[in-house]
Amino acid sequence: MAIFTAAEAAAQLILKRTQLRPHIGLVLGSGLGSFADSLTDAARIPYAEIPEFPRSTAIGHTGKMVIGKSGDVPVAAMQGRVHLYEGYSPHQVAFPMRVFARMGIRSVILTNAAGGINGNFQQGALVLISDHINLQGTNPLVGPNDDRFGVRFPDMTRAYSREYREIARDEGRRLGMTLHEGVYAAMLGPSYETPAEINFLRIIGADLVGMSTVNEVIAARHMKMNVLAISCVTNMAAGILDQPLSHQEVMETGERVKSSFEALLRAVLPRLERAVP
Ligand code: HPA
Question: Does the global pTM surpass 0.90?
């Protein structure tokens, strides 16, 4: 089925389950999914019930779309996402953004767990992504362009909204949190990087490394959605510290910063809602 038609069908199914009509979509990454549990008046839809919706296989990814309210702000929150390393195509990875758009969502907040490359970051730091380097060797817009979504060659110069980053920084300050800013390098995974690869990423200007987010951002920008992306530095990247990396460490750090992360999301949402064009 054409992506547009499939996204439309999925959006219709989701909207039938709720009276809410959110303008903001959220993607909650590894260990960060519990924010969706706090949403009120919520409809919770397992991905398995949404036609064509890819299902996450990663540990720490629940696999539910939750439409609910954070305070007064209606949001559509994805508890878990899929990754290229699971064997999904870039089109499948980006499909939820297509569904969001067909639901009437105009802005997305993407969150992820990332390795810290920049020596100023510490484990547990929250970082606003200012730009990305796509090293996944693919792109969700490969193939015929569907003009109903956007243009063939979409601009990526301001992929990560400066206005949204300012709002997040402002709210972070109000909450007494230090929010960093940095460039996210996306790798295919699922193996973590070698120290030599991390050195290469540092030299080419990356502050963070991860295995997600960029396909979603590219598809979101294709449709002119506004993007705010926040990384949680769950570990320092390979070779930065003299110790091996583990998925358990990634999950544990996510768990540790969960409450400040959720407080930031709660504070940012009403301001984004007002700023949505
Ligand atoms: N590398 C890639 N992806 C990651 C990392 C990392 O160090 N930590 C969390 N996701």
Answer: yes
Q: Give the mutation target among 202, 209, 240, 241 for probing the ligand 1 site: most ligand atoms within 8 A of CB.
A: 209
Q: Given the CA of residue 116, which atom of ligand 1 is nearest to it?
A: 7
Q: Where do the domains of the chain lie, and which CATH numbers do they carry?
A: 3-275 (3.40.50.1580)
Residues lining ligand 1, CB < 6 A?
113-115, 187, 192-193, 209-211, 234-235, 237, 245, 250
Atom of ligand 1 nearest to the CA of 210: 3
Is 247 an annotated catalytic residue? Answer: yes
Among 26-40, 92-106, 263-277, the range with the most confident prediction by mean pLDDT is 92-106
23 vs 132: CA distance, rounded Å: 24
150 secondary structure, DSSP code: -
pLDDT tens for residues 5-38? Answer: 999 999 999 999 999 999 999 999 877 888 999 9
Q: Which atom of ligand 1 is nearest to the CA of 211?
A: 3
**How far is 229 from 214, CA to CA, in rounded Å?**
10
How crowded is the C-beta side of 174, counted as CA atoms within 13 Å? 12
Could you tell me which residues are beta bridge partners of residue 85?
none
Task: Collect all residues with Cβ–Cβ distance below 8 Å to 270 and sequence separation of at least 6.
Answer: 71, 72, 73
Q: Mean pLDDT in the chain?
A: 94
CA 208 / ligand 1 centre spacing (Å): 8
